[in-house]
Amino acid sequence: MNSRRLLQNLAMPLALLAICVFFATRESAFLGPRNLTQLIVEFSITGTLALGMFMILLTGQIDLSVGSGVGLVGGIAAVLVFQHAWPAPAALGLAFVAALVLWTLMGTLIVGQRIPSFIITLGGLLIFKGLFWLVIGNSTVPVARGDQDNLYSLLTTYYLPRPVGFALAAAVLAGAAYLAWRGRQARVQHGLPVPPLPRVLLQGTVAAAAVLGLVEICNRFRGVPLSLVILAATAGGVWFLTRHTPFGRYLYAIGGNEEAAALS
């Protein structure tokens, strides 16, 4: 059973490693700092969306509209910035409000009217996709006017200076080590089982080497992308929300048994 679970846990990392090896043998630049940094930027966007989907899946629901919805919200902000000369913060703020209204409406239909989330979000996917093309006028819309960067464009084009990247990585690793130590001490005090210390130290060393190696790779191009910092901050917020707040416990309880969670 343990070997089967280990194989399941390693299946995706091994598949990803095999894909990387395949493309690296076909094109030497695949593992270059430039390409890896650009892949990190793309991954950061998808990863941030996946964190939101994670919280939805915890409750046993699904959201099929997330991709087209994000496209619509981003299109609204881009049109306001480029075609109407809005300040980027104001455009992003209005787009954020639009997202809140749209997803609140869908959530109300799902929870209040007991309509399956699959049906509601499938309809949202189709509606958002049509509205997206309507908003952008079936054409590409830049997120900046000329060579003038703004808050919107900097989300995917700004890179941290080299020292700042390493300092931020060190702070993250120190915080993670402290939280892991506190969690281990709490389990020991309550008589709960804890993993062997050598294994914990090995896992921590591997994680630290991976983080510092990632920062070094990014620094060989332009630096750590701002989008990666946003992803890391979002991941930390989701982790804290789901593990250390009553709201997060409610999400797990609803996903485990909605009726029992309501009765309790």
Class from helix and strand fractions: mainly alpha
- Rg on CA atoms, Å: 22 Å
The rounded distance between the terminal residues' Cα atoms is 34 Å
H/E order of the elements?
HHHHHHHHHHH
Shape by Cα distribution:
globular
The counted number of beta strands is 0
Mean pLDDT comes to 90
**Biggest beta sheet summary:** none
Task: Record keyword descriptors for this entry.
264 residues; mainly alpha; 11 helices
In short:
With 264 residues, this protein is mainly alpha-helical. The chain is 78% helix and 0% strand. The chain is globular.
Task: Walk me through the topology.
Layout: H1 2-26, H2 33-58, H3 66-82, H4 88-112, H5 117-136, H6 151-157, H7 162-189, H8 197-219, H9 226-244, H10 246-256, H11 258-263
Helix pairs in contact: 2-9, 2-10, 3-4, 3-5, 4-5, 7-8, 9-10
Structural overview:
With 264 residues, the chain is mainly α. Among the domains are: 1-31; 62-157, no CATH class. It has helices at residues 2-26, 33-58, 66-82, 88-112, 117-136, 151-157, 162-189, 197-219, 226-244, 246-256, 258-263. The longest helix is centred in the middle third of the chain and has 28 residues, at 162-189. It starts with a helix and ends with a helix.
